[in-house]
Structures are given as structure tokens and as C-alpha cells.
Amino acid sequence: MAAQSQSRWQRAQVVDAELVADGVRRIVLEVEHPEHAAPGTHVDVALPAQDRQLIRSYSVVRSEDGGRRLTLSVQLSPTSRGGSQAVHALAVGDELTTTGPVQSFPLAVGAGRYVLVAGGIGITALVAMASALRRRGADYELVLVGRSRRVMAYLDELSAEHGDRLRVHVDDEATPLSVPGLVGEIAAAPNAATTELYMCGPIGLMDAIRSSWTEHALPQTNLRFETFGSSGRFDAEEFLVRLPQLDREVAVAADTSILDALNAAGVETLSDCRKGECGLCLAKVVEVEGTIDHRDVFLSDAQKQRCTNLCLCVSRAVAGYTGDHASVTLHLT
Ligand code: FES
Q1: pLDDT digits (tens, 9 = 90+) for 41-99
Q2: Residue at a domain's end among 226, 256, 288
Q3: Measured between alpha carbons, how far is residue 148 from residues 118, 151, 171 in Å?
Q4: Are residues 125 and 217 in the same domain?
Q5: Which of 122, 100, 83 is nearest to 31 (CA)?
Q6: Distance 189 CA to ligand 1 centre (A)
Q7: By residue range, what is the domain housing residue 15?
Q8: How far is the CA of 220 from the centre of ligand 1 (A)?
């Protein structure tokens, strides 16, 4: 889902910062122009990083004092494109610029039942939503999926708030989520047609839910998601993009996207969401040496397998075990 509106940029100051799980830092910003942050909103933040400025989107976990204080939480990722390192380097008192709340993942009113599924740090997109559903007295379930409790942010808080409406699946406790089981339960319930599922997490989890949802012929409009340019199936590594139509070759470092690398090299491209949702940045794949790691939710599984297109903003190439850098030859449309 692309952002529906772009709020204005404003100054913000870090007023609190602490680790809330292994590798997850909670940052509280005090903003210049307070604005109510509804569940599902995010802010775009401009972050200083070495010789450049990065724009990254983060969910508003909590909005207090009429939207003056916004809480974000960011996981430090070894394969990040620079944004998470920059957030983890912020200290109380630091100033930065941010948009006001932007709505790209709205919570609908009136569903018969709500199922919220968060994988890892994806919980940040669903904390405010779950609280709103509890306050409304809605029929809802919050499903948390993670590798280990150590890295799962807000677990105790959510458990206290949602009680038995919270379901936790942890890999290192051998309680992984069965996606066919979860979606099968939804499909078999009498209110299946009015159940909405909201998800945010790794692309593999969201793809599995999407496939199962389609297999059960559940209404596609009842499946809603937030991606933030999800992590892929492979660790990010450097690779080469060849553009024969422009007679150019551009190296894409592990901490940047094809889109950013092309733009930095002066190659103009179309883009909008910059997180693999809208398809505006789609380019034709002419040839690949290595494997394409599709990280978008715009292309279908079949299209990803055919691999004739990729989303420049999130997808990458990896060499696998060959030892050489991967390369991908693209035709920009
Ligand atoms: S800019 Fe939207 S999918 Fe790439």
C-alpha cells in the first residue's frame, strides 16, 4: 500500500532512547508540530549517515501528548541499508527531521473479527492497532512470531495488555507458527468472510500467508499488510547492475538499494513507495548472473519465479556460493 498522503517535514528531538529487546532500540521523538497518529501510521525520518542523508519509514508505536511524543522502535540489522545503524547511534538531545504521521496501513472499522500477525520487528506496525481494537471491544487476536523471546520487543507489555488474545510462537521454543493452520482456522470459522488479517513481518512469512489466503479463496481485500521494504531470503551483498540501454554499469553496495545506487549515479528512475508495494519502479530483467532476491510484495509468486521484472527499490541480486559478485542486466522502462 503506498502512502496516501505526505505530511510536512518538521524538526524533532530525541527525548528518550533505550534498548527494549536484543538489538531493538526504542526512540521517543518530540516533534515541532504535534498531530494525532492513528493506528497504522508511520513517519519518514531523515537520518544522517556518513556522507549522505537516508530517508527511512518507521511505524508509530505510540503517540502521546496529542501527537507531540512519538515512539518508534528499530531493530539493528546487519543487512540494513544504513538506516538502523543511524537510529541506533542517536542519543537523547539529538535533533533530526521527520514527517508527521502518514497513513499507509489503515485499520478498518466493522470487521467481524481481526487477526493481527507480527513477525519480529513487524510488531511495531501492530501495537497501536491491537490497543485500538481492545479499546473498541472488537473480536481480535494478536499473533506474534519470533526467533527467540530475547529479540521480541514489547512482549511483556503486550501480554499484560491483551491476555489470552495474544498468541506467541517462538522458534527456539519449538513453537513455530503453522501458517496453513492459522489461515485454515480463519477459513473454517463462521465469520470467515468478515475476518480481516493485518500483517507485518519478513517477506517469507507474508508470502506464506498470502498463498494460504488465496488457496482458501478468502477475500483479498480482507488481507492487509505493511512491508517497510522487508528483508529478503538472502543476506544483502554487493552486486553489479548493467544498463546496456545507457551503456552504464553501477555497483550496488550491500547497504544501499538499486534505486538509490542508480539515483546517486545520476540515472533517473520512477519510484513512489520505495518499499516494494506500488510497482512504479519496476524494471525488466534481461540477464542475471546469480540469483534475484525479490523483496517486494507487488509481484506475484509466479512473476517472481519467471523473474522477468524486479522492483528497483528493494530487490537485489546475490551470487550464492560462487564467490564472485552477482550481476543483473536491466532495461529501465
Ligand atoms: S517504488 Fe514502489 S515498488 Fe518500488
Answers
A1: 999 999 877 666 778 889 999 999 999 999 999 998 766 657 888 899 999 999 999 99
A2: 226
A3: 14, 6, 6
A4: yes
A5: 100
A6: 35
A7: 9-103
A8: 21
Q: Where are the alpha helices (DSSP H) in the chain?
A: 83-88, 127-136, 155-162, 179-188, 203-215, 258-264, 301-306
Whether residues 215 and 269 fall in one domain? no
* Closest by CA position to 72, among listed 29, 12, 40, 21: 29
For β-strands 316-318 and 291-293, DSSP reports them as: antiparallel
Question: Rounded to whole angstroms, how far apart are CA atoms 324 and 130?
Answer: 46
Q: What CATH number does residue 294 fall under?
A: 3.10.20.30
How distant is the alpha carbon of residue 212 from its chain centre?
Answer: 20
In the chain, how many domains are there? 3
Residue 231 lies in a domain: no
| In a shared domain, residues 204 and 266 | no
Query: Ligand 1 in contact with 64 (CB < 6 A)?
Result: no
| Ligand 1 pocket member 274 (CB < 6 A) | yes
Per-residue DSSP letter, 8: P
